[in-house]
Design a protein that fits this description.
Elongation Factor Tu (Ef-tu), domain 3; 8-stranded antiparallel β-sheet; 6-stranded mixed β-sheet; Alpha-Beta Plaits; 13 helices; 602 residues; alpha+beta; Rossmann fold
Length: 602
């Protein structure tokens, strides 16, 4: 019987204190000794600690005693940022309940609502908790009224807590035991386990994080991954505490890990079902568990090695990252200017930024990133229909009948005094207003604005601009709704009269001039000076629409002269002038990664 088991996760907006509260759970239950305890214990990446955000979901098992009865609590700590939404949806499929954590100083935010809807779709039991109640800026009454408005719960069901001091932790653990149901009993059924995450270990091979749904699996069992049709053997089985804790078996309802020994990372997909490779039992009726819906990338960028011979290393690195980041989608790509690389799909700009940083830190790889673009649907004059993911794939304008671009629903929560600023920003970006809701009453009222907006308007600097016009108070959440017709053109960027393929971009026709000027200015500020004057131009087809010039580095060739005839001075300057002309005709400008990033963030 598994009545002593409780599986839950923590969902919240970014920076509302999930990882800090998880630290207090680990301390209170004695899962981690005081000597081993450190802040953000479940955030294992240096990158997560530096930025103060959770990037990867992390499972951990705790033991908690209530009224002389011991319970096993399996927690999955989830990210808060919308770019890592897929990590959250996978965590929710592996548990029966969720703690909805809201920061008392910030109130309900857009991603709080986004993550809550994901949990309600999975029919999870929701436990509302207000965090950071010890902060001088906490507004508890307002936050309570927003949660009641959102969930329709009673005021006494909301738990007050502080991840910093540990206040309310025991009350939350008690609510988890009393309110969250134990997993359904299915011990006598054929074993089936859902893979909700996986990682690669140098010594163990591929390690799958699983939720046992039916039956049990033991060490030494022959197993079968149903989607990829891959047989394997369980070399080790156990659970996270949060380190690997080997066990003899994982029973129905439990969350843990399976060391498969597989060396090919592609064989162990997130969302796949592991079952026992027992031929008498494995009948046709034994179907895989419903996995996760295929994630749709929001933006695409080309990733190329800085050095031409780095392709193999880059491929292995992306393969490894894909294992721990299943929202990443990639395929090989070839560019005339940049050689062999990959076209990668990301869920947002933060996702792309973290991906590049991880390539650099974990694999010591310097890469060139092409300007991100969204997927456009093209209908050609010959009747062909295709989806393009990069400016390089755009057919010639005279071969195109129509172009369609993706549109999103956009939800923004902001204090009411900034509503006008937000509306102004979104109308500049071609957004369509739907309606407004108010989350609270009183002087510090906050509005929830519903819009529809083209994805192309969101992917570069929209979030930064939103934070600027609302003094950092607004939060946003978005989701795809479909495709609509649009009028886009391809801008080519020329540096020293040579086209730079990686900087080509697709923009709306009426914005082309403005964006061309911005890119030229951005490159002028970020490119290193050369020995000759550098021409930077933006062009549509053969027509130059914007240009900028970067002055040459000038060596003082007449410094060694003193007195004498002026013709000696003129002769040296003339010689220098001719040399620079020759350089300009034959030199190739090396564009550093910082310049590419400056254009991305223009």
């Amino acid at each position: 019987m598994n009545t002593h088991l409780r599986n839950f996760c923590i969902i919240a907006h970014i920076d509302h204190g999930k990882s800090t509260l998880a630290d207090r759970f680990l301390e209170f239950t004695g899962t981690v000794s005081k000597r081993d305890m450190k802040n953000q214990l479940l955030d294992s990446m240096d990158l997560e600690r530096e930025r103060g955000i959770t990037i990867k979901l992390t499972p951990v098992r705790m033991k908690y005693t209530l009224e002389n009865k011991e319970y096993i609590l399996d927690l999955i700590d989830t990210p808060g940022h919308v770019d890592f939404n897929y990590e959250v949806s996978r965590s929710l499929a592996a548990v029966e309940g969720a703690i909805l954590l809201v920061d008392a100083t910030q109130g309900v935010q857009a991603q709080t609502i986004g993550n809550l809807y994901l949990a309600i779709e999975q029919n999870l039991t929701i436990i509302p908790v207000i965090n950071k109640i010890d902060s001088p800026a906490a507004n508890i009454e307002k936050t309570k009224s927003e949660i009641i408005h959102l969930l329709g719960c009673k005021e006494d069901e909301i738990i007050m807590a502080s991840g910093k001091t540990g206040q309310g932790v025991e009350e939350i653990l008690k609510a988890i035991v009393e309110k969250i149901p134990s997993p359904k009993e299915a011990a006598d059924q054929l074993p089936r386990a859902l893979i909700f995450d996986s990682s690669y270990n140098e010594f163990k091979g591929v390690v799958a994080s699983v939720r046992m749904v039916d039956g049990e699996l033991k060490k030494g069992d022959r197993i079968f991954l149903m989607t990829t049709q891959t047989p394997a053997e369980i070399l080790e089985i156990g659970y996270y505490t949060p380190k690997f804790q080997p066990a003899t078996a994982l029973k129905n309802g439990e969350i843990g890990y399976i060391v498969t020994g597989l060396k090919e990372v592609r064989d162990c997909r997130v969302g796949d079902t592991i079952t026992s490779l027992n031929s008498e039992k494995l009948g046709s009726s034994h179907s895989p568990l419903p996995g996760y819906k295929e994630v749709k990338p929001m933006l695409y960028a080309g990733i190329f090695p800085n050095e031409g011979d780095g392709y193999e290393q880059l491929r292995d690195a992306i393969d490894r990252l894909k294992l721990s980041d299943s929202a990443l989608i990639y395929e090989p790509e070839h560019s005339q200017a940049l050689g062999f690389g990959f076209r990668c799909g990301f869920l947002g700009m933060l996702h792309l930024d973290i991906f590049q940083e991880r390539l650099n830190r974990e694999f010591n790889l310097e890469v060139v990133i092409t300007v991100p673009s969204v997927a456009y649907k093209i209908e050609k004059t010959n009747g062909d229909k295709l989806t393009i993911h990069s400016p390089q794939e755009m057919p010639e304008p005279n071969h195109v009948i129509s172009v369609e671009e993706p549109w999103m629903t956009l939800d923004i929560i902001t204090p009411k005094e900034f509503v006008g600023n937000v509306m102004g920003l979104i109308s500049e970006r071609r957004g369509r207003y739907k309606n407004t809701e108010y989350l609270s009453t009183g002087s510090d009222q906050r509005a929830l604005l519903h819009y529809e907006i083209p994805l192309a308007a969101l992917i570069t600097d929209f979030y930064d601009k939103l934070k600027t016009v609302t003094s950092g108070y607004a939060s946003m959440n978005y989701d795809l709704i479909g495709y609509e017709k649009t009028d886009v053109v391809k801008i080519d960027i020329l540096v020293a009269e040579e086209p730079v393929e990686a900087l080509a971009t697709l923009v709306w026709r009426e914005d082309a001039q403005h964006i061309g000027n911005k890119i030229c200015d951005s490159l002028k500020d970020s490119l290193p000076r050369q020995q000759f004057e550098l021409k930077i131009q933006a062009a549509i087809g053969g027509k130059i629409i914007a240009s900028s010039r970067l002055g040459a580095l000038r060596k003082d060739v007449i410094a060694k002269l003193y007195g004498g005839d002026v013709t000696r001075k003129m002769k040296l300057l003339e010689k220098q002038k001719k040399g620079k002309k020759r350089m300009m005709a034959h030199s190739k400008v090396n564009i550093p990664p910082e310049a590419y990033l400056a254009v991305l963030k223009r």
